Automatic annotation (TrEMBL):
The lineage of its organism: Bacteria, Bacillati, Bacillota, Clostridia, Lachnospirales. The keyword Membrane applies. This is ABC transporter permease. It comes from Ohessyouella blattaphilus. The chain crosses the membrane at residues 68-86, 107-134, 173-194, 201-217, 265-286. Keywords: Membrane, Transmembrane, Transmembrane helix.
Length: 294
């Protein structure tokens, strides 16, 4: 119980660094701008047809695209650039506790910040689209127009027909929220590994490398590199769906009963294993980390 209080105390100390921190303010401003840009097309489309939306649909459409997920996860760099967090209280804690407790507080902070950030994105989407939205657990006429007419693909609003046919908006948003949460946690823990192993620049570079790897592994790129005929495009989709963490975080890149893409539980398991590996590496590296206090 005492150890838990220490962990919470250190975590609270990390959150106190947010006060008037320009980097944190910038992160939330950029995240808000990002949400406004992604929701703008949905609002314009709904207003042009005079239709209403289910309140979670803009979030579902925005993050049904791998590129949007990648951009959202990159903003977390602003929150975790300084890991491991060293402040005036760190020497005091390290003299009285072991490093495992200290690193547990850092990991708790990473998890809480990621959840807060994801809730912020969801909240902003709901707030922006609230005037023309309803809260009922059913897909809207706007979603049907975007999905079944193919207009959504043309204007970069991927309203998946597959998603609308097999799930409800509440179920869909919870699934996308969890997938994005796991992907961003993977990026945050990977960043901390390289911060401890190399330096802050190495941590930032690792997150860019993870997202670049996912961005390049899209079906179109794979088909061109492997010279896959267009009629065998499905094989490229399956290959990308399995080997790219970014595609594992993309809702429509999953098996819903009639293809060979990964199932949801398999993506959850993959992320859990990778995050656990990062946590083990963080624990090992923290024992050897050399603190420099000025």
């Amino acid at each position: 119980m005492t150890n838990m209080r220490v962990v919470l105390s250190i975590t609270k100390m990390n959150f106190l660094e947010w006060k008037r921190n320009p980097r944190i303010i910038t992160a939330f401003v950029l995240a808000f701008t990002f949400c406004v840009m992604l929701s703008g097309k949905a609002l314009m489309f709904a207003k042009s047809y005079g239709t209403f939306m289910q309140i979670f649909e803009p979030f579902v459409w925005a993050f049904g695209d791998a590129k949007s997920i990648m951009l959202a996860s990159l903003l977390l760099i602003f929150f975790f650039m300084d890991m491991p967090f060293v402040n005036e209280a760190t020497p005091y804690y390290l003299l009285r506790i072991n490093r495992r407790i200290w690193i547990s507080a850092q990991l708790l902070y990473v998890g809480l910040v990621t959840i807060i950030y994801m809730c912020f994105l969801l909240g902003v989407f709901c707030l922006i689209c609230a005037p023309i939205s309803f809260v009922g657990n059913m897909w809207s006429e706007t979603g049907a127009l975007l999905g079944y007419s193919g207009v959504g693909t043309d204007i970069a609003l991927p309203a998946s027909v597959k998603a609308m046919e097999i799930s409800s908006p509440y179920q869909c948003v919870l699934t996308i929220f969890l997938l994005m949460l796991l992907y961003t946690l993977l990026g945050a823990t990977l960043m901390m590994v390289f911060n401890l192993l190399k330096n802050k620049f190495g941590g930032v570079l690792s997150v860019f490398a993870l997202n670049l790897y996912g961005l390049l592994l899209n079906p179109q790129s794979i088909r061109r590199v492997l010279d896959i005929p267009e009629n065998l495009q499905y094989k490229a989709n399956v290959l990308c769906g399995w080997i790219s963490p970014l595609n594992h975080a993309t809702y429509y890149m999953h098996n819903f009963g009639y293809d060979l893409l990964p199932r949801m539980w398999q993506s959850y398991l993959l992320f859990a294993v990778l995050i656990l590996i990062n946590i083990v590496l963080i624990t090992i590296l923290a024992k050897k980390y050399q603190f420099n206090f000025l």
